[in-house]
User: Which sequence fits this backbone?
């Protein structure tokens, strides 16, 4: 994981090429499920990058649901050690749940359902 980390972080912070960011988010989830609590030493930097992604207004919105899902992958992998990230994660989930879509915007309605 140490050798992969710089490349993974570059992908997570590549907001301009959202497909790269999406793949990096998926990779974090896969790695979390695979190595479980061994990902913990890397979580501060990974969680910081995931939060940055959610807060970045220019990031394509298709990346954000996988980021929220990735929170769960990491939490399941590290268990009680997820506590330092819990409050911020819950705040991000609450903001996603409060997203409103106009009744006539099918695309935004589908997006909101993807967040839930």
Assistant:
């Amino acid at each position: 994981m140490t050798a992969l980390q710089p490349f993974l972080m570059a992908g997570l912070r590549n907001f301009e090429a959202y497909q790269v960011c999406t793949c990096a988010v998926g990779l974090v989830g896969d790695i979390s499920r695979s190595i479980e609590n061994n990902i913990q030493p890397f979580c501060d930097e990974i969680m910081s990058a995931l939060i940055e992604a959610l807060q970045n207004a220019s990031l394509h919105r298709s990346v954000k649901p996988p980021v929220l899902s990735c929170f769960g992958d990491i939490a399941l992998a590290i268990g009680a050690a997820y506590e330092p990230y819990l409050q911020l994660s819950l705040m991000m989930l609450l903001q996603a749940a409060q997203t409103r879509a106009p009744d006539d915007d099918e695309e935004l309605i589908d997006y909101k359902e993807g967040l839930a």
